[in-house]
Amino acid sequence: MFRKKEAKKAAVRQRDGNMSRVPAHIAIIMDGNGRWATSRGLPRTVGHREGAKKFREIASYCQEIGIKYLTVYAFSTENWKRPKEEVDAIMQLFHDYLIEARQELRTRNIHIQVLGDLSVFDGEFRQLIDEVQSMNPGPDALVANLAINYGGRAELVMAANAAFAEKQGPITESDLEAHLYTAGQPDPELIIRTSGEFRLSGFLLWQCSYSEFYFSDLLWPDFTTDELDRALEAFAGRDRRFGAVK
Ligand code: FPP
């Protein structure tokens, strides 16, 4: 197992020529859990359970290949419109993951950050999030950002209000950035969306300014480390000019 993982890691490095082509930060819109389940005659909640397992697998792969930040869109401010049973099931998956994280993340070397408006959650859940976020697994830990009750427009309004309140006057881009949920982190260089959909759905609206995009036809529970390699390969081949000429 270890040898296979090491070989894969080496292959990615070799293919990219150098590690600088592996992005520091990737973000994923994990779409298609519902369709994955429905196509098998299963309840949608089973799709989310498989999606949560897939997240764990992909997070450890990101860690292996040297990605420093992984942001996943797990629950948007619009997802409350779903049936209560489905919302509850997704929240339970987070809860379970956070409990597991509290026990094991130090050894797994992952640092969890939750991005989103957490004021809607009860005290016990917020306390759990606080505890997990304040764990300090080590300087080389993978930062896993879980976007929960997240909306990009809401984030911008929140950050603008906070920056304005602090400065009491006109704000700059860096004032605003300092109040985003991702403050202090590099912007995602690569954003992946699964399930053949081509939308951002309000994900990281500020941070995506110069992101590259990769759209995968695979439904999230079917996503694989090989498909992530393909996304990284596509990224490595992109000519990123950031508005300049070369
Ligand atoms: C989108 O697929 C997926 C979601 C709205 C929920 C994603 C949540 C998880 C994967 C669980 C998160 C847990 C952890 C620990 C990160 P969809 O339901 O919109 O799929 P569909 O478009 O096929 O209906």
Please tell me the total number of domains: 1
Look at the structure and give the CATH class: Alpha Beta
Shape field: globular
Helix content: 40-55%
| Uncertain ranges | 13-19
Distance between the termini: 43 Å
Distinct ligands: farnesyl diphosphate
> What is the arithmetic mean of pLDDT?
91
Q: With helices defined by DSSP (H or I, 4 residues minimum), what is the helix count?
A: 8
Give the number of DSSP strands.
Answer: 6
CATH topology name, in short, is Undecaprenyl pyrophosphate synthetase
How would you name the CATH homologous superfamily?
Decaprenyl diphosphate synthase-like
Q: What is the annotated CATH architecture?
A: 3-Layer(aba) Sandwich
- How much beta, percentage-wise? 5-15%
Largest sheet: 6 strands, parallel
Write out the strand line-up for the largest beta sheet, numbering strands in chain order: 3-4-2-1-5-6
- In sequence order, what are the helices and strands, one letter per element? HEHHEHEHEHHEEH
Radius of gyration: 18 Å
